[in-house]
Amino acid sequence: MRLGRAVCGGILLAALAAGGVLVVWKRPAAEPPPEPVRLTLHELPPEEEGERLSQYDELIRKYAARYDFDWRLIAAMIAVESRFDAECRTADGGMGLMQLMPDTAEEMRCAKPFDPEENIATGVKFLRSLCDRIPGNLTERDRLQFALAAYNGGYGHLIDARKLAKTLELSPDKWRGNVEESIQFLEHESYYKQSRHGYCKAQVIIRHVERVMKKFDEYSERFSATGPSARRIF
């Protein structure tokens, strides 16, 4: 083995002395692994399903149109609430695709909250009832953010947060940087004890609003705005 290396070395030196060109072989760089396809649980790959988002698309469009919503908003809510899992249950009592709470299901007379159609129909109807209670002089985006906050944390806490916003010299009619700020005070005893509806999980509500809005914007770019149920906000 040593002799072979010596001979090869001698040949190499002779070639270089004669003006030869040394060609250095390099191992080709390994190709980076492909990026993983990140899909929401139960979300269908668009390249395989065309414009379909989930197996519940028809139901989402149906009830979004019935209650005058952009279907992509309802899809965004379901993606965030349950990741399109009709059997989803949470520790705080949320049920099904739109995570109906037991008292909401009872109030809205939803007998089968784990049935996809009944769950979507009830959730969208409930969201419409919340939107209709929010003053119409607000911007559409603020109305939507208020409705999402109320859907997640309760309309009473939204009322308390808007009242507190006035006390803090913030705007009670704007979510971002205003009611979004005042609602956080309702996590502190000195404030929630003076409010009508008491303590609320403000950080959970804020994250929920942010996640739904982000997903809604994503779906709005991904899917074309066609048909009566593809309006931008309301």
Overview of the molecule:
This protein is mostly helical. Among the domains are: 55-133, Lysozyme; 136-207, no CATH class. It is built from eleven helices and no strands. The protein is globular, with a radius of gyration of 29 Å. It starts with a helix and ends in a 12-residue tail after the last helix.
Mean pLDDT: 82
CATH architecture of one domain: Orthogonal Bundle
**How many beta-strand segments?**
0
What is the CA-CA span between the terminal residues?
A: 80 Å
- State the name of the first-level CATH class of one domain: Mainly Alpha
In percent terms, what proportion of residues is strand?
under 5%
Q: What would you call the shape?
A: globular
Number of helices: 11
Helix/strand order:
HHHHHHHHHHH
Could you say what the CATH topology of one domain is called? Answer: Lysozyme
**Contiguous uncertain segments of 5+ residues:** 1-42, 44-49, 227-234
Q: Pairing-aware structural class of the strands and helices?
A: mainly alpha
Q: What's the alpha carbon Rg, rounded to whole Å?
A: 29 Å
Largest sheet: none
- Helicity, in percent? 40-55%
Can I get a quick summary?
Belongs to the transglycosylase Slt family. By secondary structure, the chain is mainly alpha-helical. 54% of the residues lie in helices and 0% in strands.
